[in-house]
Design goal:
Elements lengths: L1 H49 L2 H18 L11 E3 L7 E3 L7 H13 L44 E3 L5 H14 L1 H20 L6 H17 L22 H11 L4
Parallel strand pairs: 2-3
Antiparallel strand pairs: 1-2
Length: 261
């Protein structure tokens, strides 16, 4: 009997030892995997930090171009550069990034460069007021490598700048505005979403009947935003079943699902 008890105890101890060894092996493997991941991240950061700002920007622009081309999204590289010779040795060039303080900079340049008398179609604070400051694209033939990225009329040593904003910060800002000015935002959102979605997802190969059907369904969807009603739509309507969201739809999602505080 005592022998059987010792054997049973020995088997139990052996199992416990094997379990400890397995746990220790797993722990070491996890630590090694985490260390490998950490080293890879450090290496990536080192490579990233070694690149110039222009290299990083060029990579991002190339990615935007490729994605827009794949999704058949129009005007992926269309933007305007505004030159203000009043500032700095050779002037400064501003590329407005909408929804990222562009209105603040627009108003500053209108007031400080053109003055209070300037207006566009009767409106003072309108980007069209700065239309004469827009640079012409292309540096012309025979331009040096340095000037190939310069617009006509822009000096090589002029300073360029733009403003970027974290998308989550933009969502929070819009949500706060929606809470304070709900009627204004509701009207603005309808126009904004309408233009973004219709322009980005309309297929020129559609026939008139298909285009009309999709547009009618979209109009119903817009009218039902925030009402809680959800009419049935075609499964193949790209306005309502997109392969990717546009930014206004992210805004709409946050506004629909915001928590009450």
């Amino acid at each position: 009997y005592q022998r059987r008890v010792r054997e049973k105890r020995g088997r139990k101890l052996k199992r416990e030892q094997e379990q400890k060894e397995a746990e220790e092996k797993l722990r070491k493997e996890q630590e090694e995997a985490l260390e490998k991941l950490r080293k890879e991240q450090v290496q990536k950061e080192a490579v990233k930090n070694s690149k110039s700002a222009e290299e990083v920007i060029n990579e991002r622009m190339q990615r935007v171009k490729e994605v827009c081309k794949r999704l058949n999204y129009p005007n992926s590289n269309q933007y305007n550069m505004y030159l203000f010779r009043k500032y700095g040795k050779s002037g400064i060039s501003w590329c407005p990034t909408f929804k990222a303080s562009s209105s603040t900079w627009r108003d500053f340049f209108i007031d400080n460069v053109l003055g209070s008398h300037a207006n566009f179609m009767g409106t003072h604070y309108h980007l069209g007021v700065l239309g004469n400051q827009i640079l012409t694209r292309g540096a012309g033939r025979g331009a040096s490598a340095a000037r190939k990225r310069v617009f006509s009329g822009e000096a090589e040593d002029s300073v360029r700048f733009t403003v970027v904003r974290h998308p989550i910060s933009r969502l929070i800002s819009h949500l706060r505005k929606a809470q304070n000015y709900p009627d204004e935002v509701r009207a603005q959102r309808g126009d904004w979403v309408e233009e973004s979605v219709i322009n980005g997802r309309t297929n020129p190969l559609w026939d008139t009947a298909t285009r009309t059907k999709y547009k009618r369904e979209w109009d119903v969807y817009i009218n039902e935003i925030g009402s809680g009603r959800h009419s049935p739509f075609s499964d193949d309507n790209p306005y309502l079943h997109p392969p990717y969201p546009v930014f206004p739809e992210l805004i709409d999602f946050v506004m629909r699902h915001k928590r009450s505080r």
